[in-house]
TrEMBL record:
Protein name: Galectin
GO molecular function: carbohydrate binding; galactoside binding
Extent of Polar residues compositional bias: 1-17
Entry-linked InterPro entries: ConA-like_dom_sf (IPR013320), Galectin-like (IPR044156), Galectin_CRD (IPR001079)
Pfam families membership: Gal-bind_lectin
Residue stretches making up the Galectin domain: 1-111, 125-256
PROSITE patterns tied to this protein: GALECTIN
Keyword Hydrolase: no
Alphabetized UniProt keyword annotations: Lectin
Listed CDD domains: GLECT (cd00070)
Region of interest called Disordered, as start-end residue ranges on this chain: 1-20
Gene3D superfamilies tied to this protein: 2.60.120.200
Length: 256
């Protein structure tokens, strides 16, 4: 940060004077002790959001991470969650990022979740489920178990640290002989379900299928039903699948 103000704009077009519609305007102002968030629509500013202070100081290094969630932008500063900014414009309309003066920029990186289907990903990995979940949709994960724990999370948003609300957490634990099921709400784990065994061990290939039913998830491994998990949260809001370490993955598919 080299000056007292540095702006970032995620906008629908390339124009800056006057500025095109802007889904997210971030103005870092260390002298004022604020990071302002706002939007521009039809050349008019929206209502500013100013709470949260300013963890960035002039003449110091900083990084800003913007995560697109289903209902908001998640903003992290220097690796720590700073705030959420609810969508006011369709985020799919964003085509440009404009970086203003006030800082020396080392890098701008765009990380996107892979769209299903995808093949041979490095884990951990994040996949985007186009259209979310609905009854009749099946998620199929094929791979080989390599560790004593392999986690699968069907979650609302893309954040993993802290993790966004998660409608289904599967933790495959061959050493313990169980597959743990749970949900994660408001950064808190709920009640685990541990009944049933674990039909695969380290080194075993597997095909894991999650079938979305009206009232529950049905989990099958290698064509055998292992367990069910009743819906505790609106499964329609699931937009991402996160796969942890502990397996090599051949493919992640969705079928109807």
């Amino acid at each position: 940060m080299t000056h007292d103000q540095f702006n970032i704009n995620l906008q629908t077009g390339p124009n800056t004077n006057p500025r095109d519609d802007t889904a997210l305007h971030i103005s870092i102002r260390p002298r004022d002790g604020v990071i302002i968030r706002n939007s521009i629509q039809f050349r008019s500013w929206g209502i500013e959001e100013r709470f949260g202070g300013c963890p960035v100081q002039k003449k110091t290094y900083f990084d800003v991470t913007i995560t697109v969630k289903p209902d908001s932008f998640g903003i992290a500063v220097n690796g720590a969650h700073y705030c959420d900014f609810s969508h006011r414009l369709p985020y799919a309309s964003i085509r440009f990022i404009h970086i203003g003066e006030g800082a020396n920029i080392d890098a701008i990186t765009v990380n996107m979740a892979m769209m299903l289907p995808f093949f041979n990903p490095e884990v951990p990995c994040l996949g985007a489920i186009l259209g979310g979940l609905q009854p009749g949709k099946n998620l199929i994960i094929q791979g080989t178990l390599t560790g004593d724990r392999f986690n699968i999370n069907l979650q609302f948003g893309p954040e993993v640290d802290p993790r966004d609300d998660t409608a289904l957490h599967l933790s495959i634990r061959p050493r313990d002989g169980r597959i743990v099921r749970n949900t994660y709400v408001g950064q808190c784990w709920q009640d685990e379900e541990r009944s049933g065994g674990c039909p695969i061990g380290v080194g075993d290939p597997f095909t894991l299928e999650i079938r979305i039913k009206d009232t529950h998830f049905s989990i099958r491994i290698n064509n055998e039903k292992v367990c069910t998990f009743e819906h505790r949260m609106p499964f329609e809001m699931v937009n991402f699948i996160h796969l942890g370490a502990g397996a090599t993955i051949d493919s992640v598919l969705e079928t109807f």
